[in-house]
Structure prediction request, 599 residues.
Amino acid sequence: MIWRRFRRHKAGMGALVALVLLGSLAAFAPSVAPYDPRAISRSTLRAPCASHFLGTDNLGRDVSSQILHGLRVALVVAVAAAAISTLAGTVVGGVAGLAGGPVDAVLMRFTDGFMVIPSFFLILLVAATYGSSIVTVTVMIGMTSWPTTARVVRMQFISLKEREFVMAARAQGASTARLMLCHLLPNALPAITVVAALRAGGAVLQEASLSFLGLGDANVVSLGRILMSALQYMQLAWWPAVFPGLALFVIVLAFNLFSDGVNDALNPRVTRKACGS
Amino acid sequence: MLRYAGRRLLQAVPLMLLVIVVTFTIIHTAPGDPVTYMYAAFNVTAEQMEVIRNQLGLNDPLHVQFLRYMLRLLRGDLGYSHVNGGPVLSLIVQRLPATLLLSLSGLALASLGGIALGVAAARRRGSITDYLVSAVSVAGYCMPVFWLGIVLVLVFAIWLKWFPSMGMETMRQQLTGLARLGDVVRHLVLPATTLGSYFLAEYARLTRASMLETLSQDFIVVARAKGLRERAVIWRHALRNSLLGIVPVLGVHVGILLVSATVTETVFAWPGLGRLTFNAVLQRDYPLLMGVFVFVGWSVIAANLVADIVCAIVDPRVRYVD
Prediction:
């Protein structure tokens, strides 16, 4: 039903296709990329041409190969961080929504408090002091972005648990765990997808900003870090400064449009977006 | 009203303490110590390093260090920077005006532009204008801030040479009075636009949504029915009521604003707090880092508090929600 409506949503479908394409490009980056992204060569700062179609950087590395490998890192961070954040948010929001009463009040106070914390600076601080391996960065991004998901899941559970089919299941003696996993969660899944896709886009931006500030993992090719070094010789070469950013923009745009598409398919009449979400 | 404000203030206090505890714990349990890092390049023996550590109190147990920090904090003393020796508080205060100038101009651009775009879109729903505004706001939302900055520098500073690409003032000549003001403004245009882009998108989107809702309400129909000019209906009646919907998110925006400022200042070498943070991170200047993060955390909490209270003043219903 939702899928049928989603299929008619042009931007959403386009975004899904783009995501699948980007995903396969990233997955096969080592074979698709024309060069080794780290291979230094003598042809430095070459403008886009036939052999380097996005040019080379100051060390003669091929920009297109760097972007393809950077894409890989960006997508892995996006998916992993969104998964962590969704899992944490679903657990907190689900328990709060299902339990209600004082448990709900305590958990929501905690969530509200967490929302106020400037998460990017917290990640920055941890990356600066504990080192910024890609795992640390991803886990931190995931662990600081769950409150929105928790709120959405809680609202979903609160409205779902009064429905007849949940009451029927409860009357049949279904356990709380069964209610949550088999009845509430599947019905809340589309709404969770909407937030998760937004989180994925946000995670890409956060990782890129962190790398741009020089706090990314130095052992992986990151789009943010290519841009950071491109800043130094921008007077001489525009291509390493433009294309990686364009790639970032496309990834984030795709995640956002996909999220919009699912959202519109979910609430066909509601065209107004929730404030501040 | 006062009771509501007081309660919100009380709720903020534990959060402010939490910011200090978390920042302190992260910094002081981090692997590697600042003394080794600072003096590794110099010819300093292990014993001398031990003396420095003792002097800085880094060998005391964590809770003693924490208590000492708290006591000094109560006296308004944020400690001294390890790297350049100056008091942390004055380093922050020195950099604050540049960041405020940048952020406020960015926000001003964004709110003027965003509200105008949002109103234009809402007035002609479904038109090309509406479509374009939506496209701009989605783009602004997904654009990495620093990349927008880079592209602006490329186009307007390097290719067209309309604006300078970095810094806040021209260093080569000493300008005074109006000439200096003009110089700063010229330096401000690109970074402020970069910083404002995200907020422009956000305000356009929020204003549009909020205006559409307001415009469908009865009092607008009445205003039109009694023959008010369309301009008065839109700007005086609809917009004023729509702006209420934007107030609550302003608090959250201060957090995002500080992030955008850090990144923007890095692109444009703008001498503000963001640069200070960036350098403190690179040089592992722990007291400075500690000061900056406590400052940032408190600003965000304070901004949320103010936004909540303003919300309660303009919309009395909020006070009774919890």
Summary: The domain at 89-320 of chain B is CATH 1.10.3720.10 (MetI-like fold). The first helix of chain B runs from residue 2 to 29. Residues 202 and 304 of chain B are 18 Å apart (CA to CA).
